[in-house]
Amino acid sequence: QVQLVESGGGLVQAGGSLRLSCAASGRTVSDYGMGWFRQAPGKKREFVAAINQYSGPIYGDSVKRRFTISSDNAKNTVYLQMNSLKPEDTAVYYCAADWTSRFGTLKRSETEYDYWGQGTQVTVSS
Question: Which of 4, 18, 94, 123 is most solvent-facing, going by the fewest CB within 10 Å?
Answer without folding.
Answer: 123
